[in-house]
Each structure stands twice: as structure tokens, then as C-alpha cells.
Amino acid sequence: MTSLSIIIPALNEEGYIGETLQKLHAAILTLQSSNLCKVQVIVVDNQSTDRTAAIARGLGATVIPESIRNIARARNTGARAAEGEVLFFLDADTLVPPLVLSKVATVMSDPIFVGGAIDVLHRPSSALLRLYLRLWRILGRLTGMAQGAAQFYRRDAFSTIGGYDETMYMGEDVDLYWRMSRAARQKSCKVCYISDIQVVPSPRRYDRWPLWKTLLWTNPLVATLLCRRKRPWRGWYEDVPR
How many domains does the chain have? Predict the structure, then answer.
């Protein structure tokens, strides 16, 4: 891997984007200490009304605008502006460990891999929710499901399958991973799920939502039925409480 573009979609993330970028910079330094890899950091400002863009610029990221609020569209906008041969998609409220990019570089040095995802560790304050989400992680591994908090793909493979599905407002990350997995098998290639390290998203939704809402909104049947309707998911991406 000679070049890497990190793409972060962001909507009103001034409370999180700073720490996310600081952790990311530590991972970039770790990568570049042992790998001559050019790294580009892109924050896609999805029409924020707070200081998200200013904070990102202050921490050295390239900020590009996307006026239509849709996380799949924001990710695709970042991909079109990216220069790297590998695209790494990271959520704006997600903290990465120092070795995460080095792990990705190791995987992508093998041409058999077209992409993959990093294991996600949720840390809500509720012990019951932690158990519930841990069971979801196990189910995800058994079904080949990978969330989009941290996914990575070869640029050409990503373009070939059309990127994230912009008609979806929920589950577009899982959808892309499944589509990439199928496409890889057809070409005798693979995707890689990195499970020996984890990224950690903010628990804000789980800590502020009532339990019933979390159980309902993470139900796969509900997500499948409503994934292409914008209104039900406004509280997930557009109006996330702080």
C-alpha cells in the first residue's frame, strides 16, 4: 500500500471530531514510522451548523462540503475527492488504536484482499446494553456482517461496485461490505475482518435513548423495512443528541 485516504463523514460533530482526529494522527505516525505511505485525511462536512469544519481544518484535515444530508452520499463524496489507492472510512465519533492503520497496511499489502473492516467495541453505560451489543458482535461475525465505523477498500474495487448505496439511510455500511464480499468471491479475492484490535464509537445514542428504542432500531427486520426511508433515521444521523 503506497497511499491511503481516510474519509470521515461529519454532521455537527464539534464535540467529537477533535479527539477522533487526534487519535487518528497517532495512528498515522505509527504507520509512517515503519511504512513509506502517503496519507490523506478528508473530512466531509455534511452541512454542519457548528464548528465541525473549523476544528477539522485546525487539525490538518482537508474539509470538503456535501450539502445533502445522507451519510452514504457523504462517504461517496469523500471517495471521489480521495487520491489514495486504499480508502479508509471512519465515523466522526470513533476512536482508533495506534496500530489500526498499520494493520490495514499489512492486510492490503496482500493483493488477494480487496478491503475489509475493523471490529467495533461499543461501551454504553448500561451493562444490559453492553451484553446485547456483544451478542450482536458475535452474530455479525457469524453472518459476515461488518459495521461502517471503520471500513477500508481498494479504490478500484470500491468504484467497480458503485460505492455506498445512497438510497439507504440505515445499513448502507453492512450492505456495502456484503456486496464487496460477493464481488470478491467472484474474482477469487477476499475481504478481511480485523478482530484483534477494535475501534470505539461514542456511546451517545445508547446512553440517551431508552432501551426500547435501541432494541427496536437495531432490530434487523425494522432496519430492512425502513432502511430507504429518511424520516425514521433522523435521530440516528441528523439529530443525534449530545
Answer: 1
Residue 228 belongs to a domain:
no
**Helical (H) or strand (E) element with 215:** helix 211-217
Whole-angstrom distance between the N-terminal and C-terminal Cα of the chain? 37
Grid cell 432500531 — which residue? Answer: 217
The pTM (predicted TM-score) of the whole model is 0.91
Query: Residue 70 carries which side chain, given as an amino acid letter?
Result: N
What are the strands of the beta sheet with 190-201, ordered from one edge? 62-65, 38-45, 3-10, 86-90, 150-154, 113-120, 190-201, 94-95
In a domain, 132, yes or no: no
Tell me the mean pLDDT in the region 198-210: 87
Q: List b or e across 154-173, with b for residues whose CB sees 16 or more CB atoms inside 10 angstroms.
A: bbebbeebebbbbebbbbbb
Q: Which of 5-14, 121-130, 178-187 has the lowest mean pLDDT?
A: 121-130
R_g of the chain, CA atoms, integer Å: 17
Contact indicator for 57, 18 with CB cutoff of 8 Å: no
Q: CATH number for the domain including 63?
A: 3.90.550.10
Encode pLDDT of 52-91 as tens digits.
999 999 999 999 999 999 999 999 999 999 999 999 999 9
The answer to whether 208 and 126 have CB atoms below 8 angstroms apart is no
